[in-house]
Amino acid sequence: MMEEVRLAALLQKVHTADPTLIPAMQALQMATVLGAKALGLHEQIGTLAPGKRADLIIFNLKAPHLTPKHDLASLLVYAASAADIETVMIDGKIVMENRQLLTLDEEKIMWHAQKCAARLTT
User: Using CB atoms within 10 A of its CB, is residue 62 exposed (0-12), middle (13-18) or buried (19+)?
Assistant: First the structure.
């Protein structure tokens, strides 16, 4: 998802030659509140508010590529990646903490994916 947010901001800049067309904060809003509105789900998701699903991600911002920290929105859109996500909460339940999946067996999933890929390529 982070790559799609970055691409949404960058592609419009290239296409129109206007670097101000989609600012970083607008790109983040497109991925959150505006995305929820587009899906007709803005009453349930898109913002952190009482009564809405608690979906959130926590970034580890201590990496060298995330320094300096002048503008958090720009930092998240243009420099952060999925690899910088440390914790994920979906509907109020923590599903990944300290980069460890808590609800899925990652090793088993990768084993099955490799098996499926082998069947497709033989």
Answer: exposed
CATH code, domain carrying 9: 2.30.40
- Write out the chain's pLDDT in tens, 122 residues: 889 999 988 888 777 878 888 899 999 999 999 999 999 999 999 998 999 998 999 999 999 999 999 999 999 999 999 999 999 999 999 999 999 999 999 999 999 999 999 999 98
If one counts the domains in the chain, the total is 1
Q: pTM value? A: 0.80
Cβ atoms < 10 Å from Cβ of 56: 13
Which residue segment(s) compose the domain that 51 sits in? 2-121
